[in-house]
Amino acid sequence: MKTKSDMKPFIIAALSLTLLVGCGNDDFPAEEPKVPLEITSAFVTGDVQTRAVTPELLTSGSIGVFLEGRSGTGYDKKDNIQYNYNVGWKPQTETIYLGGEDADVCAYKKTTKLDLSAKEAVPLVSRIYDAEIDLVYATNQTVNGTSAGKSVEFTMGHAYSQIEFVFSREDYPNTCKVTEITVKNANIIKTATLNLATGGYTPVTVEKVSYWTNVAKHEDGIAVPESGTVKSNVLMIPCTLVNAGGTGVTLELTVDGKLMTVPIAHDKLGALTAGVIHQISLKLKGTALEISVKDTPWDNQPVDGEYNPEP
After folding, report:
1. What is the pTM of this model?
2. Which InterPro entries match (predicted)?
């Protein structure tokens, strides 16, 4: 027959089990509930092609979203999480979840040539215009898992400035074929990186920008018609231009195989501004080159002038 002393191990074991169960239920808090990020809308300010003053509501395509928690929070960093528009913005595969603490989110519009793996140093290159390279993005916004903080609206701006050359001719005797354009100033930036979170630019190469007007066949260039106009557009990394004795940018145009130098006054073009089209109209004449300059931050402010080309 078992004595009372024989039962002690069973009593102690049962008591230990009870203590463990109690500790598990009462002393360890449940995991904090997470709520999905809601993207209510996305806009692009100043569409390059339409020159829309009112931001364009995006109702198609994809955006890439980046999330990073504030210091000391428990968020996992998320890079380039794709959301697609389908009667609202919905995650393609992975959903971004928010907790009670603050985090930062930024985003960009994805294209066939823009699929960014990181937000900190996005490479930019001044080059002939390409809609698939024309990066639009929204800098950091604060979000969290509260009812007021879980929703975000992205208003995206252009990373680049743009110069639009508009060519026409009057009594010009030759073929009038423009093959190459060079933009010169001591502050012109050829390559840089952009931090999507902050909107900060870091110049990499500071030098003139030259480009062929006809990417497929350089020697063909673009032909200026006898009547009407022809355009050539270049994406430029934003910068403030040096005032060199009253001159802002100096253009070098190769027309019919000959180099033409055209100074643009600094008071007419003193900066290349992100999201702004700087339109330079050039009328090639037999004896002179007529120029007008206007900035189009998606409204027009024309400034006219006439210059003689220098060989």
Report:
1. 0.85
2. Mfa-like_1, Mfa-like_1_N
